[in-house]
Amino acid sequence: IPCVSADHEAGGRMAAEALLECGCKNVLQFVGADHGGGQGDIWPQDWVTTPADQRHIVFQRLMEEHGVQCRCVFEHNLFLSAERARRIAERAFRDAPEVDGIFGADLFAMACLHCALEHGRRVPRDLKIVSYDGTNATQFMTPSLTTVCQPFQDLAEASVRLILQLIQGEPAEEKRLVLPVTLRRGQSTGAM
Fold first, then answer.
1. Which residues pair with 5 in a beta bridge?
2. What is the three-class DSSP state of 11?
3. What is the pLDDT of residues 8-33, one digit of tens each?
4. Cα–Cα 20 to 30 A to 177, which of 62, 100, 143, 162?
5. Cα separation of 17 and 113, whole Å?
6. In a 3-state reduction of DSSP, which class is residue 53?
7. Does residue 56 contact residue 12 with C-beta atoms inside 8 Å?
8. Angle CA 177–167–181, to nearest 5
9. Per-position pLDDT tens, the chain of length 192
10. 149-171 as b/e: b if 16+ CB within 10 A
11. Where does the chain show beta strands of DSSP type E?
């Protein structure tokens, strides 16, 4: 089956490097999906990995290679409400008050930023945050979020082009198309 995706491995590396550059030593990463991957001890046994999970796998590996404690917060519900994200972030801060770095999808990152500020944590002084996806909402946060951005428009165009080829009975030009991600620097990791 043909697959069009962002370069999630590069995205995980970008996020890890951004937090490592800031000197983070105790990081939480929020992993969310509606499926469950057995990728070592950190992944639940029923987790089936997808290309998107590569960002978390690479992130975890790089943190471990640099001696950074990195714990995962798993959420099995892909259709996450803002209220549920907020409750998950609140629980994560309660369970790990010493955390100095956060990595997660935009909604998790925004919920963590909100909770941190509510509890007097200063971002980026006390806590650094890197979000993943690059939805428009991340640009309206204060402080602004450092974000790994997926190329949504290019992903959509490539997917439609591939679907049209298949509908017309043409062979798929490429079975796996991986598009580059970019890092948009924000205030959540320090000076822009």
1. 178
2. helix
3. 999 999 999 999 999 999 999 998 76
4. 62
5. 20
6. helix
7. yes
8. 20
9. 788 999 999 999 999 999 999 999 999 999 876 444 444 445 555 556 677 889 999 999 999 999 999 999 988 766 788 999 999 999 999 999 999 999 999 999 999 999 999 999 999 999 999 999 999 998 899 999 999 999 999 999 999 999 998 899 988 777 889 999 999 999 999 965
10. bbbeeeeeebeeebeeeeeeeee
11. 3-6, 26-32, 69-75, 101-105, 128-133, 146-149, 176-179, 182-184
Residue 137 CA: distances (Å) to CA of 98, 131, 134, 177: 27, 11, 8, 27
Residues 6 or more apart from 15 whose CB is under 8 A from it?
Answer: 55, 59, 103, 130, 132, 148, 183
Looking up tokens 């806590």 gives 127
State both tokens at 114: 């909100």
Report how far residue 29's alpha carbon sits from residue 113's, in angstroms, rounded to the nearest whole number: 14
- Residue showing tokens 């935009």: 106
